[in-house]
Specification:
- The chain is an all-alpha fold.
- Helix 11 crosses helix 12.
- The longest helix has 25 residues.
- The N and C termini lie far apart (54 Å).
């Protein structure tokens, strides 16, 4: 084990030990594992910005929380990071026989089929029936809904439950939008919510067929909106004007200026 990694584990052990940090000692496996979600999200954000220094920092935070969870687990079970790493490494080797064995996989789809077949065999060895399990993989409730929809659709597609081409998916979106318009016309709040969900689900399906991660696309558009809106606020503050009292036309004009400024990468 490298000195740096051993030192990290020693630091975590000290934090959890009697006389350590009250906050760290208070954490449970559940509370600590939830922080993993936060750190993973921050890593995604840094990667989206291509912020290599930020990625390195967030990887460190993610590694810390992973080891922190392992430390808590070790307090209740005979396990440590060495054993966790060994089991994880063994699983990777076992599920990549086309790399570490004699099997072959000519493309990503073949390697994925092989991976799934090995997972099914592992379940049988544990006395589980993989055929009784749903094709839809279980996902934590905290999973981002857009990503959850993407994964469900991807899983269903492996069984052939999919449109034959993009045109069918696009037509489904038009159908859902028409049903949304009908629900709006009927002033039915429950139906509107239902149809908006169907519209979002259809958009995610289009993203999947086009090879776009909808959660990443949504993060990016949120970031663009935030940047542009901040520039709109800054313009009104500079002019000594109130954004809340501005007309929609004035705000739209400021929005377009902010958009052009960011798109051009200049201060003009």
């Amino acid at each position: 084990m490298s000195d740096a990694f051993a030192e990290l584990l020693a630091t975590i052990h000290t934090l959890r030990a009697p006389g350590g940090c009250p906050w760290d000692r208070k954490q449970t496996l559940l509370s600590a594992s939830r922080y993993l979600l936060d750190e993973a999200a921050e890593l995604v954000e840094a990667a989206m910005r291509n912020d290599l220094r930020g990625v390195r920092e967030e990887l460190g935070d993610l590694l810390f929380m992973t080891c922190f969870c392992a430390e808590i687990l070790g307090e209740h079970d005979d396990v440590d990071m060495q054993r966790i790493a060994a089991e994880g490494n063994a699983k990777l080797i076992r599920r990549h026989p086309h790399v570490f064995g004699e099997a072959e996989a000519e493309d990503t789809e073949a390697s994925q089929r092989q991976w799934n077949a090995i997972k099914d065999q592992e379940k049988r060895e544990r006395g589980e029936d993989p055929d009784a399990a749903s094709i839809l993989k279980d996902m934590p409730p905290a999973t981002a809904p857009l990503h959850q929809a993407y994964r469900y659709q991807k899983d269903a597609a492996t069984a052939g439950f999919d449109w034959p081409d993009l045109a069918g998916v696009r037509a489904k979106l038009d159908e859902e939008l028409a049903e949304l318009d009908e629900a709006i016309g009927q002033d039915d709040a429950a139906a509107v919510e239902h149809e908006i969900g169907d519209v979002l689900f259809a958009v995610v399906n289009i993203a999947r067929r086009l090879g776009v991660q909808p959660d990443i696309a949504m993060r990016r558009v949120n970031g663009r909106f935030r940047e542009r809106f901040h520039l709109v606020e800054e313009e009104f503050r500079t002019r000594g004007a109130s954004l809340a009292e501005a007309s929609l036309a004035e705000m739209e004009a400021a929005w377009q200026r902010a958009k052009r400024k960011l798109d051009s990468g200049t201060d003009a």
